[in-house]
Design brief:
globular, 2 strands, 76% helix, two-stranded antiparallel ribbon, 470 residues, single chain, mainly alpha
């Protein structure tokens, strides 16, 4: 295990120190400029679309349900354990770089989710499937690359990320209740199996209720911490901004470590550019692709600027952290809240983390299921094998070593980003044309813009869910 961990770390250092920083920031800047800062310009429309979708019923999966599936995957241990690890490793300045990558990632998230809607495929019972593998195959006509992405995503989210979530659940329950990891592994495997063998529709129904509850409870806890330390808030923001450019001496590697840690943990949490969220975006039944693109872009803000910031404020305001210290991850978050809420806090946080991480497990599985058709013939057998594999990885993750699990997540994340952004960069003009069409219709007073690919894109090639090839 130690040799494998060392090898994975060496590869990650190259990818994350050079390649991905340039690609992610470059694409984020490009999409921000080409969309004329869609993440700010259409922020009111994003909020309107999200709120109007609450409680809306669609024949298949509604816009709000698709948002909740993607948020279930986004809002997980990266928001709690990942942020705590970032602060201990990169110092308070890492939080600033998480915010920066979220701002530019919002534009990237809009483009990739809009493309997923344009090139989604209709399924029986009013359902849709789509995502990077689908637009790579249908728009770029590169089935080999599409299959590569599908396998990478299924392995990353169905296996690696699931193990990360399970790992954190096991740690939190052990820390709070002294529960043996083997018991946690067994219980978690049973619960996971009950949900994922019900398919995408059941996952959408579960996350529609679970996500608002878990996020709401956590933000309320953070709000209480902020109110109790209100006089320290200005100093906290000053510390974040100062350390973003002049990290404390205790941060090994200085500014580079602060930047890289913030970007890695930020991306792991909000997933912008990774190609995961488009799989959920494509399932939504909407009247125009841009609608879901905007809703999913807002999810980046919700994830990083709201939920991740909540963890950062809890850790920084309570002062329980030590840069380079041994207390890190979920245990640090638990101890930070315990300093405010007393001995019951670790147990309460463990339950909250269970909700966060379990919702991520089923959300991550959903992404994998959508890509299983690319595995080859006998799709039903592949699907059942994939489901069994997910349950086994829940057990593995509950018992595995933390460092190896997180390093594997970073490695596979890099592969996904590079494959997806290659396709997004080539197809971005289609999303930009769709955005122009949507804004034009709204200016004309049309409340629910509709999408005609022949008119907007000048072609219907590879498009199967928007009035053609049905």
């Amino acid at each position: 295990m130690e040799m494998l961990n060392a090898a994975v770390s060496a590869v990650n250092n190259v990818l994350w120190s050079y390649v991905l920083i340039i690609v992610l920031v470059g694409c984020g800047l490009w999409f921000t400029l080409s969309t004329r800062c869609v993440q700010l310009r259409l922020l009111p429309e994003m909020i309107r679309l999200l709120l109007s979708g609450v409680g809306t019923k669609a024949p298949g999966i509604s816009s709000f349900q698709a948002f909740c599936v993607s948020t279930a995957s986004r809002v997980g241990v990266g928001n709690i354990a990942g942020v705590a690890i970032a602060i201990v490793t990169g110092g308070p300045g890492a939080v600033f770089w998480m915010w920066v990558i979220a701002f530019f990632g919002c534009a990237t998230g809009f483009v990739e989710s809009t493309l997923a809607q344009i090139y989604k495929l209709p399924r029986p019972l009013g359902l849709f499937h789509g995502g990077p593998a689908y637009y790579i195959q249908n728009a770029l006509h590169q089935p080999g690359v599409a299959r590569l992405f599908a396998v990478l995503l299924a392995v990353t989210f169905g296996f690696i990320y699931v193990s990360v979530q399970a790992n954190t659940i096991a740690q939190s329950l052990t820390h709070a209740f002294g529960l043996d990891a083997f018991i946690t592994a067994g219980l978690l495997a049973v619960l996971t199996g009950l949900v994922i063998f019900g398919g995408v529709r059941r996952i959408a129904q579960v996350t529609e209720y679970l996500v608002p509850i878990m996020a709401g409870l956590y933000i309320v806890a953070a709000f209480i911490v902020i109110c109790l330390h209100i006089m320290q808030v200005p100093a906290m923001f000053a510390l974040i901004l100062h350390d973003a450019f002049s990290p404390q001496a205790a941060v090994g590697g200085g500014l580079g470590t602060a930047v890289l840690t913030g970007i890695k943990r930020g991306l792991f949490s909000n997933e912008a550019g990774e190609g995961s969220v488009p799989n959920a975006a494509a399932t939504a039944d909407v009247s125009h692709p841009v609608q879901q693109g905007l809703v999913q872009a807002l999810g980046v803000y919700v994830d990083t600027w709201l939920v991740c910031s909540a963890t950062a404020f809890i850790v920084l305001l309570t002062g329980q952290y030590t840069i380079g210290g041994s207390l890190t991850g979920v245990a640090l978050a638990q101890e930070s809240l315990a300093s405010i809420f007393g001995s019951l806090a670790p147990a309460a946080v463990a339950i909250m983390i269970f909700l966060f991480a379990f919702s991520s497990i089923v959300g991550n599985y959903c992404y994998g299921e959508i890509n299983v058709p690319f595995f080859g013939k006998n799709g039903h057998l592949w699907l059942q094998a994939f489901r069994v594999g997910v349950v086994l990885m829940v057990i593995f993750g509950s018992l595995a070593e933390l460092n190896l699990v997180w390093n594997l997540a970073d490695l596979f994340m890099a592969g996904l980003c590079l494959t997806n952004l290659y396709a997004v960069a080539r197809l971005a003009p289609h999303a930009l044309h769709a955005l122009t069409d949507y804004v034009t219709q709204k200016r004309q007073g049309i409340q629910e813009p509709t999408f005609d690919p022949a008119r907007v894109l000048g072609t219907t090639e590879g498009i199967h869910a928007w009035g053609v090839d049905k």
